[in-house]
Amino acid sequence: MHSYSVAEAPLSKTALSRNHTIAACLTVLTREIHTAGIETQDALDLLRDAPDKIEAALTRGRCALVIYRLDKSGARGVVSDKDSRLNHFVAVAEQEGAPLLGFCPGAIAELAVLVGAGAASVRMDS
């Protein structure tokens, strides 16, 4: 038998930062899901879908939002940096009386950078 060893390529700082941003966004979303009292299956569906939406928002730029509408047929999400599209999505939710969850991955990424810089500063002061 042959044994192969595959060396894992180290993540670049950008990829690592992006992964940390996605994790931070999922933390925010998990907290919102818990606070809203969303049923387990709907919560799992939302969290399963979220990383792709977060990635799409980060690709679109720092002003893109991820918004979920929790209607009778489950969670529906949209990613956009266009006010008209977001306003329409929110208007439909308001008309149906459906709760909304939303966050800005770009803002969370900026906050993560600041937190990382603060942590680095504390380590250097020690």
Task: Quickly describe the structure.
This protein is of the alpha+beta class and 126 residues long. It has helices at residues 13-36, 40-60, 83-96, 105-125; strands at residues 65-71, 74-80, 100-103.
Tags for this model:
single chain, 126 residues, alpha+beta, 3-stranded antiparallel beta sheet, 4 helices, globular
Structural overview:
- The protein is of the alpha+beta class and 126 residues long.
- It is built from four helices and three strands, in the order ααββαβα.
- The chain has a three-stranded antiparallel sheet with strand order 2-1-3, sandwiched between helices.
- α1 runs antiparallel to α2 (40-60) and α1 packs across α4 (105-125).
- It is globular, with a radius of gyration of 18 Å.
- The relative contact order is 0.15.
- The model is unreliable at 1-12 (pLDDT under 50).
Helicity, as a percent range: 55-70%
Largest sheet: 3 strands, antiparallel
Number of strands: 3
Radius of gyration: 18 Å
- By DSSP (H or I, 4+ residues per run), the number of helices equals 4
pLDDT < 50 runs, ≥5 residues: 1-12
Question: Cα distance, first to last residue?
Answer: 51 Å
Mean pLDDT: 82
Q: For the largest sheet, list the strands in their spatial order.
A: 2-1-3
Strand content: 5-15%
Which SSEs are present, and which pair or pack?
Layout: H1 13-36, H2 40-60, E1 65-71, E2 74-80, H3 83-96, E3 100-103, H4 105-125
Antiparallel strand pairs: 1-2, 1-3
Helix pairs in contact: 1-2, 1-4
